[in-house]
Amino acid sequence: MKLLDGITVVDLTRVLSGPYSTMLLADFGADVIKIEAPESGDDSRNFAPFIGKESAYFMSINRGKKSVTLDLRKHEGQELLKKMIIKADVIVENYRPGTMERWNLGYEDLRTVNPKIIYAAVSGFGHSGPYSRKPAYDIVIQAMSGIMSLTGPEGGPSCRVGTSVGDIIPGLYTAFGIMMALYHRNVSGKGQKVDVAMFDGLVAALENAIARFQVEQRVPKPLGNRHPSVTPFDSFSAKDGLVVIGAGSQRLWELLCKDVIAQPELASDPLFVNGENRTKNHKELKNILEAAFSKMTLSELTSALEKTGIPHGPINSIDRVMEDPQLRARDMFVEIEHPVAGKLKYAGIPVKLSRTPGSIQAPAPILGQHTYEVLQKFAGLTKEDIADLHQKGIV
What we know:
Layout (H helix, E strand, L loop, with lengths): L7 E4 L5 H11 L3 E6 L13 E2 L2 E2 H6 L4 E4 L5 H13 L2 E4 L5 H4 L4 H7 L4 E6 L14 H8 L19 H24 L4 E5 H7 L4 H8 L16 E6 L2 E6 L3 H11 L14 H6 L1 H12 L4 H11 L3 E2 L4 H4 L3 H5 L3 E6 L3 E6 L23 H9 L3 H9 L4
Parallel strand pairs: 1-2, 1-6, 2-5, 6-7, 7-8
Antiparallel strand pairs: 3-4, 9-10, 10-11, 12-13
Helix pairs in contact: 1-7, 6-8, 7-8, 10-13
């Protein structure tokens, strides 16, 4: 039995933030019914790379779901959705605020259909505030949240983080919010609205930047791979490549000096004697460390670091990540066969539960693959009814 067996999620989301959150729910057993526009479907079905005519991008974030085509701009489509909501537990949408209300499908409308419904909305700026109706994508949110102002080479331009954290982090918060709302409903019997803003999500992930600004009264800037307050915590050059090292405590710093570079006196040098001084004099320290590391191969350096227990690691490319024995041991790449695209490896499930583990239920659906099955179950429609709706362009 899966943790979310018996939970039905009606998924109106597209592209990334919403689909990512509902994928997590599907991995733990929720019956996720993905509502897509007839003919075109989720926008991400048109995102490269493709295997035949199927988008690998779409498949990577929509596994385990059922696809139903339904035109929510038409009255008949709206009424069919309401019939589904009667039997559903959760609805998730990531339209721009105001869109669902214009279709008479907002939270206030749907709670009259099903008072226990959990209505989760993830949008660029949330359902309140002066920016509420503004459109957004990951790059916009990364820029406005301050994440980009912290990312990039020291002294260089701001950079976008290499993955769409502006979508993925809010997607995680949305799944988290839904789980809390489900727990509350189990206790109280009442549904509620979950309102997640991509903007809020990335600001919440700024970590110590907000504290540093208030304490130091200086605007944080990009630092490359360096940590703003822990040193040495950076990437370093050995004789034949790069390694990252995080000597995040005084004990680890002393071990680095004594057992890795054989310069125990460096640990008591006034310039580097404590974390604050090491950070103030980080340039001088990096020069000293790299002078020592340049005499060692990566193999020699990592072997010495391993013996001391100092956290370290290579800067892996994606091909090396997919061959990593630790990730393989934890089933973090799972091969699933798609009925059209064939076999494809998906990132696995990072949350390991001992009693109710998740698993990838099925590949991503073909557009409209489950329309008949779902509409028969939720709306009592026959094949003839659905054929008529198809003729009208509603499904």
